[in-house]
Amino acid sequence: MAKRPSVVAHRGASEVSPEHTLAAYQRAVTAGADGLECDIRLTSDGHLVCVHDRRIDRTSNGRGVLSTMSLEELDGFDWGSWKNPWADLDDEAELPSPDLTKVLTLDTLLATVRDAGRPIELAIETKHPTRYAGLVERRLIEALDRFGWAHPKIGTESPARVMSFSWLSLRRMRTMAPGVRTVLLMDRIPLRFRDGSLPTGVSYAGPSLELVTAHPEYVDRAHKHGHQVHVWTVNTPEDVQHCHALGVDAIISDRPELAIATLAEHPDQPPAPPSRTRRRLVRRR
C-alpha cells in the first residue's frame, strides 16, 4: 500500500482566501497542510514577491506589469478585495486586515514556514520568461540563505524546493545551490523523458492532473527512475482519490482542507484506475 500523498496548498488555501496572501497561507497551516506552494516574481527594486501573473490586474486593484514596479508601489495596492467584492454584505466574510490585502514578500512567507511550530515544506515556482532572467534565481538563493536553507548540511534537507516549467531555471539552481531539490513542471512530457526519466539534476516530476489522468502509467515510470511525482492542481475528492490510487507522492491543491479530509476518510490506497484513452506524451511547441 502506497503511503498517503502529502498535501501542498496551492498559493495557500486559495479556494477560500485570496491567493498568495498571508491569510491564505495561515489558513493552510492551520488546516494541517504538509506544504505550501507559491509563485515568485522580482520587483524593479530587487524584492521577490508572491504573485502568479506577469501583470497585477487580476489579483489587485492596480494595473500594469509587476516587474516594472517597486515593492513600495505594490504595497499601495489592495491584493485581497477582488476575491470577495461583496464582503461588506457578507456576515461570514473574513474581516479586512493586512494579512488579506497586502502583497506578500517571499521573506515573509519563509518566516511563516520557519515559525509554524511544525515541519512544513515550501514549493517555490520561478516564473519565466522574465526581463530579469537569472537574477530571479540569484535573489531566491540569497533569500533561502538568510534562513539557512540554500545549502543544507550533509544529512539534512532544505524545507524548500524550487519548481519551474523552465529547465534553464532549474539548471541555474543546480549550479548555484545543488542541495536544493527541484521539480520540473509539465503539462506535456517531452519525448526524451516519456520513459519517466528527467533532466540531469532534477529531483522530482511535476505533471499536471490532466497529464496523469490521461497517462496513469507515467507515475510508475517516474518512480522506477527514482523520482517522486508531484501533481497539480487537484481540487475534487474524486481527483484526490485518483491521485492516491496512482501512488503520487504529493498533490498540490487550492483546497487543502478538502484534500486532507478526503485522504483521512480514505486512508487505504484504492485500486489503481484503468488507463484512459492514450494521448501523445510529446510537448507541443
TrEMBL record:
PROSITE patterns: GP_PDE. Residues 265-285 are annotated as: Disordered. Residues 5-263 form the GP-PDE domain. Coiled coil: none annotated. Transmembrane segments: none annotated. Residues 276-285 have a biased composition (Basic residues). This is Glycerophosphodiester phosphodiesterase. It comes from Kribbella lupini.
